[in-house]
Amino acid sequence: MSATVEELPTRQQTMAEQLRELPRAFWMLNIMEMLERLAYYGVRVVIPIYIAQADEIHGLHFSQSEKGFIFMLWALVQTGVPVFSGGFADRYGFKRTIAVSIAIKVVGYLVMATQREFWPFTIGCLVLAARSTCWSTSADFSGRRWRTFSTACRGRRCSTAAR
């Protein structure tokens, strides 16, 4: 009679235990992404009011058609830039891409804050739109890196060399 050894059931980790095991870089990336999205979408909500507000002394006083033109160009840039910025992230790495993205973001916000004429302000908006696509591409790239790492190490402890 042959005896089989039953495997002991393995205890599943709780969600809190799984969250504690995530590396520091994972949390930094997610917090940066959250703050970036909050700032970006905050600007996207307020900027139409700032552009066309005729009754405010410090508003830009652009027409509705000029506001529509700015947002059309913004959408075109956001759609077209990822074709090139994805290659940049793949070639130079996500850390450099994020650094360049942050520098472009600062320039875009500064130009938008200081320019009161149509074309300089529009250029600031387009710089910000180009930056947001660079950020998304690099954050997606680094997110894939962490997903690949966590999938490869699922169910066992991975050494820090594998990270």
Q: Which of globular, elongated, flat, extended, rod-shaped describes the shape?
A: elongated
Tally of separate helices:
6
Distance between the termini: 47 Å
Strands, total number: 0
H/E series: HHHHHH
Q: What is the subunit organization of this protein?
A: single chain
What do these coordinates show?
The chain is built from six helices and no strands. It is elongated. Helix 2 packs antiparallel against helix 6 (118-152), helix 3 (64-80) packs parallel to helix 6 and helix 4 (82-92) crosses helix 6. The protein has one domain. With 163 residues, it is mostly helical. 74% of the residues lie in helices and 0% in strands.
Using brief descriptors, characterize the structure shown:
single chain; mainly alpha; elongated
Short note summarizing the structure:
With 163 residues, this protein is mostly helical.
Please give the structural blueprint.
Blueprint: H1 15-21, H2 24-52, H3 64-80, H4 82-92, H5 94-114, H6 118-152
Helix pairs in contact: 2-6, 3-6, 4-5, 4-6, 5-6
